[in-house]
Amino acid sequence: MRKSIRLTGIVAALLAFAALLTSCTSSVTTDTTTATSGSSTTSFLIMIGFIAVLFILMYFLTIRPQRKRQKEQASMLNNLQRGDRIVTIGGMIGTVESVSEDSVVLKTEGGTTMRFLKSAIATKTTGENK
Description:
SH3 type barrels
């Protein structure tokens, strides 16, 4: 809900910015060739500016949050310890029995132990979710 409102506001601001830039073009000239070349230069600069704004928005709305999530996931995987409760990407819930460089041994509620790759771990849960 918050993201859709924020995204709607950003789109409205971009449209207002584009309308403002198009209204700034000079319309009074005496020579027709000067008016055409000045108008095309202005419209080209407006187009380049709009594309730059779109790239900046794409960075802040998609790339930056994804990198943040990747760093948090890597930090969580590096800080796994024996006794942590985790959930795998397949939905398996268990307690960490041992951690190696690329895998983790989980103990489920039934007492079964299973080895999973670290990349298959989705989240670490708190003790309240038992």
